[in-house]
Amino acid sequence: MTSEQKEKELRSELDQKARKGETVVPGGAGGKSLEAQEHLAEGRIRGGQKRKQQLGVDGYRIIGKKGGESSSSKKHVHDHDDQHHDREHQTQ
């Protein structure tokens, strides 16, 4: 059996597993076939690289430290700061 035949057979087996719902490509979760999982994984990798370019290395570190705060948790922090600020002005 040639290497091309082996690769074709392996891809066929992986495609069958993917069609049964298994994730056979890292980052390909949700794809209904081997090809779909490959495309999903590629898109997810590109998306991460694009965000890294936009944010830069330092921006990525900041997000990592904050743990990816949601916008609602940020709003809560700002509301708390505003209330604290209002109290300071009321006492003066």
UniProtKB/TrEMBL annotation:
BP GO annotations: response to abscisic acid
Organism: Zostera marina (Eelgrass)
Signal sequence interval, chain numbering: none
Upper classification of the organism: Eukaryota, Viridiplantae, Streptophyta, Embryophyta, Tracheophyta
Superkingdom: Eukaryota
Residue ranges, compositional bias (Basic and acidic residues): 1-22, 35-45, 78-92
Region (Disordered) location: 1-92
Protein name (record): Small hydrophilic plant seed protein
